[in-house]
């Protein structure tokens, strides 16, 4: 019996049997669509199978080409080792046109280091990790555009300037690119316009990480076969294990996902094993293979020896008077590199400007200088490059971060004031890129330890790196190449083979640095165990009385200079109401007398004791600076627990220090006589701006009549009034000076920068502005020794 479908009894509602009929109609329509799609799927599956067969055939042809090349059957494709992998250092079918283009565009006859192998593997469309300088030839020879990702706007600007001068079509898409330029560049990247093809496109990693529209452009380029390769400069920035990690670099991993068939070239100056492993993981590259015997699969790895025998490293003494530093450098340049191009690296943007102005004036206008840092406009940078290459500018003063954009093969000297070995090596890499001799000169004085410590205390690993730099600077016996090799081997796990040349091993002396060429008769190696014991005993007494002193203050106190007193906090008060009282040292009772060292010798020994953990740093922050004091370190008790008689009897650890003897103070250029005094300004430039300390930034003039207190700078008996020393900024505001004769120590706030300077992005860098006007009093000249007897650098 048929089931009756009951209709709705309510008026206006659709009966259920009609609704059922409508639903059946909809189901039939969906079934028809599914049938149509099934038919399409069958067709697409057949097409997919055909495409897979076609792809397999293409892969087979590639494999046959590789196989025949390996067997030596293809005489037109050299570079294949018999029965093994590919030797990219050999010749290939593109070798002749590549060298011809290199000569025509860049005027270069041959490759440097292993650039030939890198270019060959690039032409072979391989993924590459390259730890060495390279070139742009593959981009010029290959069809399509090479995308270059660089972290520095200045470096991008400089490379574009070089390439455009060579006639290469290149664009950049950065924050400084105008909307009109950007629209024109993006259109030309995607479409064929009939004009000159864009060969290189420069962007920052932020462009990849944050611009979806640019990613869309890259996808269109790739679909059109116009994205030839991707180059990632400073690739070590992708790793948090590296010294310059940048978060946006990690987002570059999307490139391999979006463009799996586009080869990637990762470039870096230094890439330790741990960083390399992280780099491969982040960029999603396959395991590295040797470029001299490379299988068809894998990321081809190239590295050049870190040792460059044409670079001559030396450490020269920095004068105690900051104003003399300018004159010393000018004298060095005039004597040793009168017509050569060079670079002076500074620690802040402000320093570059002041140093450039000071060098020009100190040389009497004989040295033409230029400035290069982040705030210099692109047009000014272009003008600087042109004038530098044309010889109108001899010396460029630059910061390390933005100075890396400077590129000229004929740089014959680089003057450094570095705070790390990594920075020192990176800076020196600008010199002698044409393979000819070049000088890399580090200026150093013991007081730099305090100043640079204040600059690096906020950096991760900054103190350890600075201590390594101090060890390098104080060493007057070991070959500089060996010191570099040991440092990078320990700090970055780089193999010692990186410092091996074709003629000598990594630990073989270079024979041409300052230590290798030094006359042994100029070295004075002494047992300074007694002096160290005295110093640590005095330090212990200062701490027991609640005092705190800087390295410079302690160097005076141990020799009885500055009145033999130091500041201690008194009254138990804090903040603005706290008082500073003076405590005296009885050196005879504490340490059996004064320490018989010149100030330079004393500073050198103090630094050695710091590096050996007999001392440690103590940091105190003020509104404008970081103050650095010395405290007894964990090794101090190894000596202080012994008596004077036990030390004299040879008990306890023995401490030796090597000093560099010279009959009289010399200029950095080697001429005998005193270091030249700063020249007086004749056209409005303040003497304070000439009186600068490059490594420390600004310093302050010594005050008359000041004793060694918490806020004061003691004056060495042999130095002239107005010279600079290490400084301290007290953590209290400027207070009235006591009357002459007061037993209280001065309590002055002498900020190294004004509040307006904090916006200069150099918060921890000392500035070189004119210091605030303060009342000063001259300290009495007294002391047991003349400090011009020895210029000291010790190991």
TrEMBL record:
One of its GO terms (molecular function) is metal ion binding. GO terms for cellular component: chromosome; cytoplasm; nucleus. Residues 64-77, 751-764 have a biased composition (Polar residues). It catalyses: ATP + H2O = ADP + phosphate + H(+); Couples ATP hydrolysis with the unwinding of duplex DNA by translocating in the 3'-5' direction. Its main location: nucleus. It is found in: Nucleus. Residues 709-729, 786-795 have a biased composition (Acidic residues). SUPFAM superfamilies: P-loop containing nucleoside triphosphate hydrolases. Residues 328-477 form the Helicase C-terminal domain. Its EC number is 5.6.2.4. Residues 688-698 have a biased composition (Low complexity). It is an enzyme of class 5 (isomerase). One of its GO terms (biological process) is double-strand break repair via homologous recombination. Residues 137-289 form the Helicase ATP-binding domain. Residues 63-82, 659-795 are annotated as: Disordered. Keywords: ATP-binding, DNA-binding, Helicase, Hydrolase, Isomerase, Metal-binding, Nucleotide-binding, Nucleus. Belongs to the helicase family. RecQ subfamily. This is ATP-dependent DNA helicase. It comes from Sphaerobolus stellatus (strain SS14).
């Amino acid at each position: 019996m048929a089931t009756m479908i009951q209709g709705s009894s309510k008026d206006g509602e659709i009966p259920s049997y009609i609704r059922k009929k409508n639903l059946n109609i909809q189901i039939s329509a969906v079934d028809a669509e599914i049938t149509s799609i099934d038919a399409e799927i069958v067709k697409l599956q057949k097409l997919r199978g055909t495409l897979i067969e076609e792809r397999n055939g293409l892969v087979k042809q590639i494999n046959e080409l590789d196989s025949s090349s390996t067997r030596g059957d293809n005489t037109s494709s050299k570079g294949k080792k018999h029965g093994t992998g590919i030797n990219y250092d050999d010749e290939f079918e593109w070798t002749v046109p590549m060298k011809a283009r290199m000569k025509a565009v860049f005027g270069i006859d041959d490759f440097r280091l292993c650039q030939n192998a890198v270019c060959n593997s690039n032409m072979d469309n391989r993924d590459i990790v390259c730890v060495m300088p390279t070139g742009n030839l593959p981009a010029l020879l290959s069809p399509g555009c090479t995308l270059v990702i660089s972290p520095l706007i200045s470096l991008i600007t400089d490379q574009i300037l070089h390439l455009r001068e060579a006639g290469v079509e290149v664009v950049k898409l950065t924050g400084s690119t105008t909307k009109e330029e950007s629209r024109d560049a993006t259109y030309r990247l995607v479409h064929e316009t009939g004009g000159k093809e864009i060969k290189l496109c420069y962007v920052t990693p932020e462009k990849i990480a944050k611009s979806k529209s640019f990613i869309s452009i890259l996808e269109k380029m790739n679909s059109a076969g116009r994205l030839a390769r991707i180059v990632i400069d400073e690739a070590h920035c992708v790793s948090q294990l590296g010294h310059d990690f940048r978060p946006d670099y990690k987002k570059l991993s999307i490139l391999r996902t979006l463009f799996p068939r586009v080869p990637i070239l990762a470039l870096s100056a230094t890439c330790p094993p741990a960083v390399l492993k992280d780099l491969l993981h982040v960029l999603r590259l396959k395991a590295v293979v040797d470029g001299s015997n490379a299988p068809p699969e894998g990321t081809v790895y190239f590295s050049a020896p870190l040792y460059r025998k044409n670079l001559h490293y030396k450490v020269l003494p920095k004068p105690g008077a900051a104003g003399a530093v300018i004159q010393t450098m000018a004298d060095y340049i005039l004597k040793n590199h009168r017509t050569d191009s060079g670079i002076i690296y500074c620690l802040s943007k402000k320093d570059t400007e002041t140093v450039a102005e000071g060098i020009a004036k100190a040389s009497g206008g004989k040295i033409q200088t230029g400035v290069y840092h982040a705030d210099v406009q692109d047009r000014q940078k272009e003008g600087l490059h042109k004038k530098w290459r044309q010889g109108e500018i001899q010396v460029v003063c630059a910061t390390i971060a933005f100075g890396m954009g400077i590129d000229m093969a004929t740089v014959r000297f680089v003057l450094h004031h570095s705070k790390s070995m990594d920075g020192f090596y990176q800076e020196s890499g600008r010199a002698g890129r044409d393979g000819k001799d070049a000088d890399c000169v580090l200026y150093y004085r013991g007081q730099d330890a305090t100043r640079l410590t204040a600059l690096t205390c906020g950096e991760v690993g900054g103190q350890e790196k600075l201590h390594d730099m101090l060890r390098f600077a104080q060493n007057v016996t070991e070959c500089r190449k060996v010191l570099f090799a040991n440092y990078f081997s320990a700090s970055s796990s780089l193999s010692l083979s990186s410092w091996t040349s074709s003629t000598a091993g990594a630990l073989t002396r270079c024979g041409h640095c300052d230590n290798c060429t030094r006359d042994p008769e100029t070295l004075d190696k002494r047992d300074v165990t007694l002096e160290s014991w005295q110093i640590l005993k005095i330090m212990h007494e200062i701490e027991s009385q609640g005092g705190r002193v800087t390295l410079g203050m302690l160097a005076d106190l141990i020799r009885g200079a500055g009145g033999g007193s130091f500041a201690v906090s008194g009254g138990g008060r804090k903040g603005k109401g706290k008082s500073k009282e003076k405590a005296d040292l009885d050196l005879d009772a504490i340490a059996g007398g004064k320490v018989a060292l010149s100030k330079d010798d004393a500073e050198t020994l103090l630094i050695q004791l710091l590096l050996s953990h007999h001392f440690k740093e103590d940091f105190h922050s003020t509104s404008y600076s970081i103050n650095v004091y010395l405290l007894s370190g964990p090794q101090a008790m190894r000596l202080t627990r012994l008596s004077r008689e036990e030390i004299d009897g040879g008990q306890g650890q023995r401490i030796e220090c090597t000093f560099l003897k010279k009959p009289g103070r010399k200029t950095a250029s080697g001429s005998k006589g005193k270091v030249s005094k700063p020249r007086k300004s004749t056209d409005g430039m303040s003497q304070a701006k000439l009186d600068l300390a490059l490594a420390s930034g600004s310093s302050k003039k010594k005050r008359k009549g000041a004793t060694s207190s918490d806020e004061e700078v003691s004056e060495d008996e042999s130095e002239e009034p107005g010279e600079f020393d290490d400084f301290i900024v007290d953590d209290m505001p400027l207070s009235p000076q006591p009357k002459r004769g007061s037993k209280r120590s001065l309590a002055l706030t002498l900020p190294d920068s004004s509040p307006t300077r904090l916006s200069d992005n150099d918060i921890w860098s000392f500035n070189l502005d004119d210091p605030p006007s303060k009342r000063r009093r001259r300290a009495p000249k007294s002391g047991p020794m003349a400090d011009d007897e020895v210029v000291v650098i010790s190991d």
